[in-house]
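Supplementary notes for students who missed Thursday's class. We covered one full example, reproduced here. Read the sequence, then the structure, then the short commentary at the end.
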Amino acid sequence: MQMPDFKTYSDEDHDGFVNLVNDVHAEFGYSYDPVLDADLADPPAFYRHIWVARMGASVVGSVALTSAKDGVTMLKRMYLRPEFRGQGLGRNLLRTAIETAVREGWKKSSWTPVCTSRTPSASMSPEASGWTAEMERPCTTRKN
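Structure (token representation):
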């Protein structure tokens, strides 16, 4: 299988990015939440960095970093379409985010997993990559 191309998010990625997020949420039984998903209206206004993985015209993966506050950034919006999971793409997206954060002098990442009995445990996390991560909260439970 051909691997997707990684690129920095641009306006042309907006619809594909939003569809990816909403499709992955729907996969786990979630629907759009105007509070938790407010960033989807204008992702660059919420994130310092956003990367997408594209296969042709389709956005098949994503990851984002917030601007750092006191040297801590938040890792956000890390998603993959099901058919691209288990191939190292998530690891590559995470590596891109971590390398950027380290290059910019950020020391820690805060991230909040969404917890549900339907959510599989992530095989790749900032800690597994050797980067210090601080949990902002132990868990966010998304309501349908």
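Commentary. Strands lie at 5-8, 49-55, 58-65, 72-80, 108-111, 133-135. Confidence is low (pLDDT under 50) at residues 115-124, 135-141. If anything here is unclear, bring it to office hours.
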